[in-house]
User: Which sequence fits this backbone?
């Protein structure tokens, strides 16, 4: 591990509430270790602000291992920053050069009202899951796990889709502000597995309806979501969602 | 404090059946009249919320994050154990039970561990039914791998994301109950206190993290599924928001705290890189299946690893433990890494690291095979450290990972406060002094899906099914105490006093905990910690800077409250470690070791659960002992030579 340090300038979004007027604030940061993660760089800024008696930047984060989906911001115009398949917490400062200016702003989407600074309200994603993103099975004594065989490649495809961490970067990157990649991933996981197929039709329609209700946009194949997804979810999942939706729309029994 | 573990009489294998049969039942029509508060939405909390909702109870579920799906269970990589014996390799419920009791160094209750092994198989079936995409064999059956030194292959997994997939299973089941109106979700809420009325748990006080409002919630029973306390060390593999506050407040309201000194320190984490490091990252211990651990033979050798010739390397685990080699249990591997570094053989700038080398595996099996097994871990390692483990050895060092201690619970998972339950990592019950790999997920889901839903009814059946409210003065008293604490935390900054940030004090505490109550402990060190912690605590209250107000989203204030509780809790941990004058599992007292420097238990004097009772601010807590008796296994000295 090399331990270099760099000096940078951050332009970071400050906004004191959903309806408050926001603006960029500029800070010069000195001697940032290139081994630091991006969030540790914000920690350093916050410690400095606190000592100065100023309010630190509010930002969401938790596991700092790239799996909980809590963190996220737009860095120099890209959700989760410049590295492919990387959450903000796994972005490291060695990615930046001495003297760089880094612009940091919250995820922006019609469906994600700003709470404070970099924190946004992503509860719309939970409501989409509540609409049908589950298998209706009660806890009890289901049959033995090996009763229904699932081909390995199908299980793997389902896992590819299930890897979504629900961070919302897809909606933030999309010009239409749609979380269709998130939605497509959940619909795909269950459409692929026999356990989920019984409710496939109802699920696809209910989840899309909820997405519309929450003010999110729709997919027009810009593929921006795929480019920023930290878990490498492909838009094939949106294609599968569309197929499931169409199939359901034409054949569902009301 | 009365400790009645309520373990049913009779043969081990029949105890759980007996308990279920003797439990009182709640009339199905009455279930809708009961409310249950569940704090935490990790595996233990989400599974309980979903299941109780399905049964017809009204659940109020609370989480600290913006969504219940983000609880730290999500970070578990390796897998979940169950004695399905799908591999036909001789596994059985009794073997899973035995391995778990032995792995815990004979400091867990037989009856609880046996029940855990019994219900583990149901967990796998339940998760498959929910659509959890477990790994499969070509023929479509569920795949297994061996893990954590077990001699059978009993670990089910979903790539390196098993915790995430199991949590999403429980989360989606819970979301279904939210849609059905049986679970009401309260996100971005932090539990600040437990409300006890006439000795019985009746509700909680929360801080709404968005508005800052102090809120009161009532219910017929309260369940804490709030995880472990590893962040008392500042640096750990826990998530940033993981904290002890809920459990600590319950302790201060009368719940016994058991074995706080049992902390698991995981051997394969990425070493600390600098003073601004905020957390540590775990690398799955499966890496030790092929990686060889070594340090330079010469002290202070700062050459690049690849420039150190074979003859000048010390593969110390292989040398000391010829039969287990690099696969010794977590506690043994961690202690040996510390020893090598203490003796001056540590690597890297800090000298706090050892090598984990894949060169031989790559030469033997080919790069392809090694990458297929560990590619994602290598990728993660490279992203964090900027070093390629296929070209030079990984640097690793132990880090705090899991806490076996927690709130004392009886066989029903009820604490010493009637109506208050603790599940998952938050309780102390199943792992003894050391947890085996792939057992945390098993315990969290066992508690939530298959134990609590049976035992909580036994309590609720004794509580009148009348609506609850927050009118009792105890609610307002607790809420106003929380408001007072907030005011105290904000006071220094309001008065314009110069001071230090919350993190500054947290780091000070963490350093003491790590140095004096870490991988190896001794009397002098623990006494030093017991002297220093109150000093840091006093300084914290005198000097901490917390900008902003209490009536808004204020992350500094959130952290300050958590650190204030860690500063009290750390003292109890050190006290427990001091009073347990033996070594067992993750608790290594230097005074109690064999001639070969291995942990030496003292069954004659310490075969008990240490349960601490709060006696008020400034008064020493009282130690109670629940004796541990072993009727089905014989405690033996662990040996990995």
Assistant:
């Amino acid at each position: 591990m090399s331990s270099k340090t760099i000096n940078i300038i951050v332009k970071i979004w400050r906004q004191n509430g959903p309806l408050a007027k926001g603006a960029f604030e500029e800070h010069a940061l000195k001697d940032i270790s290139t081994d630091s993660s991006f969030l540790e760089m914000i920690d350093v800024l916050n410690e400095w602000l606190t000592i100065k008696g100023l309010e630190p930047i509010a930002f969401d984060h938790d596991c700092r291992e790239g799996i909980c989906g809590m963190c996220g911001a737009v860095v120099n115009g890209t959700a989760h920053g410049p590295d492919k398949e990387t959450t903000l917490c796994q972005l490291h400062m060695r990615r930046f050069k001495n003297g760089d200016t880094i612009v940091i702003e919250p995820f922006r989407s019609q469906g994600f009202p700003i709470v404070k600074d970099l924190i946004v309200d992503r509860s719309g994603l939970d409501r989409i899951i509540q609409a049908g993103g589950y298998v209706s099975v009660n806890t009890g004594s289901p049959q033995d796990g090996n009763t229904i065989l699932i081909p390995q490649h199908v299980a793997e495809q389902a896992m590819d889709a299930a890897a979504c961490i629900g961070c919302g970067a897809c909606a933030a990157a999309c010009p239409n502000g749609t979380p269709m990649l998130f939605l497509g991933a959940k619909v795909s996981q269950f459409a692929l597995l026999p356990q989920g197929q019984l409710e496939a039709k109802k699920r696809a329609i209910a989840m899309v309806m909820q997405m519309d209700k929450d003010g999110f946009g729709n997919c027009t194949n810009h593929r921006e979501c795929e480019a920023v997804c930290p878990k490498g979810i492909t838009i094939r999942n949106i294609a599968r969602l569309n197929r499931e939706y169409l199939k359901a729309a034409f054949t569902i029994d009301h | 404090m009365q400790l009645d573990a309520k373990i049913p009489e009779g043969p081990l294998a029949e105890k759980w059946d007996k308990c279920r049969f003797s439990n009182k039942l709640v009339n199905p029509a009455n279930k809708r009249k009961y409310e249950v508060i569940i704090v935490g939405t990790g595996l233990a909390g989400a599974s309980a919320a979903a299941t109780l909702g399905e049964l017809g109870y009204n659940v109020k579920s609370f989480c600290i994050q913006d969504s219940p799906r983000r609880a730290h269970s999500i970070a578990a990589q390796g897998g979940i154990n169950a004695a399905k014996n799908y591999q036909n390799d001789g596994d059985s419920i009794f073997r899973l039970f035995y391995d778990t009791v032995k792995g815990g160094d004979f400091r867990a209750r037989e009856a609880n561990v046996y029940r855990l092994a019994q219900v583990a198989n149901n967990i796998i079936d339940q998760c498959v039914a929910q659509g959890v995409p477990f790994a499969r064999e070509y023929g479509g059956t569920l795949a297994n791998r061996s893990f954590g030194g077990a001699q059978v292959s009993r670990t089910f997994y979903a790539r390196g994301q098993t915790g995430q997939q199991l949590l999403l299973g429980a989360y989606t089941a819970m979301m279904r109950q939210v849609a059905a109106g049986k679970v009401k979700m309260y996100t971005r809420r932090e539990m600040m206190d437990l409300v006890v009325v006439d000795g019985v748990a009746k509700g909680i006080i929360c801080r709404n993290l968005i508005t800052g409002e102090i809120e009161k919630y009532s219910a017929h029973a309260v369940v804490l599924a709030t995880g472990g306390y590893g962040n008392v060390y500042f640096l750990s593999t826990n998530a940033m928001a993981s904290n002890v506050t809920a459990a600590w407040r319950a302790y201060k309201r009368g719940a016994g705290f058991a074995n706080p000194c049992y902390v698991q320190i995981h051997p394969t984490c990425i070493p600390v890189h600098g003073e601004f490091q905020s957390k540590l990252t775990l690398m799955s211990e499966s890496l030790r299946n092929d990686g060889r651990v070594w340090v330079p033979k010469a002290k202070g050798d700062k050459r690049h690893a690849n420039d150190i010739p074979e003859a000048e390397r010390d593969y110390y685990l292989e040398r000391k433990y010829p039969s287990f080699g690099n696969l010794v249990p977590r506690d043994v591997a961690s202690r040996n890494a510390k020893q090598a570094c203490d003796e001056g053989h540590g690597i890297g700038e800090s000298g706090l690291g050892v090598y984990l080398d894949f060169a031989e595996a790559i030469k033997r099996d080919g790069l392809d095979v090694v990458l297929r097994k560990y590619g994602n871990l290598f990728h993660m390692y490279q992203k964090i450290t900027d070093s390629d483990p296929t070209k030079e050895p990984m640097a690793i060092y132990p880090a705090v990972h899991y806490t076996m201690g927690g709130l004392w619970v009886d066989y029903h998972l009820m604490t010493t406060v009637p109506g208050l339950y603790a599940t998952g990592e938050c309780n102390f019950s199943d792992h003894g002094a050391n947890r085996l790999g792939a057992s945390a997920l098993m315990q969290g889901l066992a508690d939530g899906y298959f134990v609590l839903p049976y035992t909580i009814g036994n309590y609720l059946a004794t509580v009148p099914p009348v609506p609850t409210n927050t009118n009792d003065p105890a609610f307002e008293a607790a809420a106003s105490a929380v408001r007072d604490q907030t005011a105290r935390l904000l006071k220094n900054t309001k008065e314009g006093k110069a001071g230090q940030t919350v993190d500054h004090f947290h780091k000070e505490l963490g350093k003491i905990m790590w140095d004096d109550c870490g991988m190896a402990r001794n009397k002098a060190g623990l006494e030093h910690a017991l002297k220093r912690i109150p000093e840091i605590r006093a300084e914290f209250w005198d000097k901490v800077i917390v900008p902003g107000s209490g009536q808004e989203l204020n992350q500094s204030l959130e952290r300050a409250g958590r650190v204030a509780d860690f500063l009290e809790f750390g003292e109890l941990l050190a006290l427990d470690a001091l009073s347990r004058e033996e070594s067992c599992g993750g608790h290594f007292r230097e005074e109690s070791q064999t001639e070969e420097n291995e942990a030496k238990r003292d069954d004659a004097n310490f075969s008990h659960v240490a349960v601490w009772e709060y006696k008020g601010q400034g008064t020493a807590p009282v130690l109670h002992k629940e004796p541990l008796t072993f009727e089905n296994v014989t405690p033996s000295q662990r040996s990995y030579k």
Summary: Chain A has a mean pLDDT of 96. Strands of chain A lie at 5-14, 23-33, 74-75, 78-79, 101-105, 114-116, 119-120.
